[in-house]
Amino acid sequence: MQWRLLTVGKPSLNWAREGLADYLQRLQRHTRIEHHVVREGPAAQVERQLLKASEGCRRILLDERGTLRRSEPLAALVSEWQLSGVKNLCLIIGGADGHGPQLRQAADELWSLSPMTLQHEMAAIVLIEQLYRAYGILSGSPYHRP
User: Fold this and answer.
1) 107 in a domain, yes or no?
2) Which DSSP string corresponds to 51-67?
3) Out of 20-24, 48-52, 64-68, 79-83, least confident range
4) I need a surface site. Which of 27, 63, 127, 140 has the fewest CB within 10 A?
5) Of 127, 134, 130, whose CA–CA distance to 61 is shortest?
6) CATH classification of the domain holding 100
7) How many domains is the chain partitioned into structurally?
8) Going by DSSP bridges, is the β-strand pair 2-8/88-92 parallel, antiparallel, or unpaired?
9) Cα dihedral 55/60/62/67 (nearest 10)
């Protein structure tokens, strides 16, 4: 499987850049993943960029109203996708204006990391850490301790 993390704007906080880079590198041991940044701008422009960057992917939008997932069921879902031949997945974190109606319509799934709204850089780190944890569960790594 090929994963793509789509975010709006480059991380501006040093610790966020370093944390995201660390977990993206760790994930490379388990799967292919890339981080693609779209330019900040008017909401309609950002939405068009996200749609274009996620063409051909299973689109998973991060949204506070989405489905909350625990770590083990997320690992099971990743395994299911691997076994069923899902090729390309895009994890999409919107900009300050959230997701527009066209992107929501095009989404295959809505996920939530928390019922609280998370700052975008924090959301990216939490999301990628959870994906790393899911692959750790699948590989039997001691990283996850239930």
Assistant:
1) yes
2) HHHTTTSEEEEEEEEEE
3) 64-68
4) 140
5) 127
6) 3.40.1280.10
7) 1
8) parallel
9) 160
Tokens, residue 28: 């490379």
Structural domain that includes position 103: 2-139
* C-alpha pair distances (Å), 113 with each of 53, 62, 92, 110: 22, 7, 12, 10
**Is 44 a member of any domain?**
yes
Tokens standing for residue 122: 């924090």
**Contact indicator for 15, 96 with CB cutoff of 8 Å:** no
Q: Is residue 6 part of a domain?
A: yes
Vertex 19 angle, CA 18 and 23, to 5°: 115
Q: Tokens for 37?
A: 């940044």
In a domain, 76, yes or no: yes
Using one digit for the tens of pLDDT, what is the confidence trace for 42-62? 999 999 999 999 999 999 999
Give pTM, 2 decimals. 0.94
Residue the block writes with tokens 């919107």: 94
Pick the closest to residue 71 from 15, 4, 6, 127 (CA basis).
127
Give 116's Cβ-side CA count (13 Å radius). Answer: 4
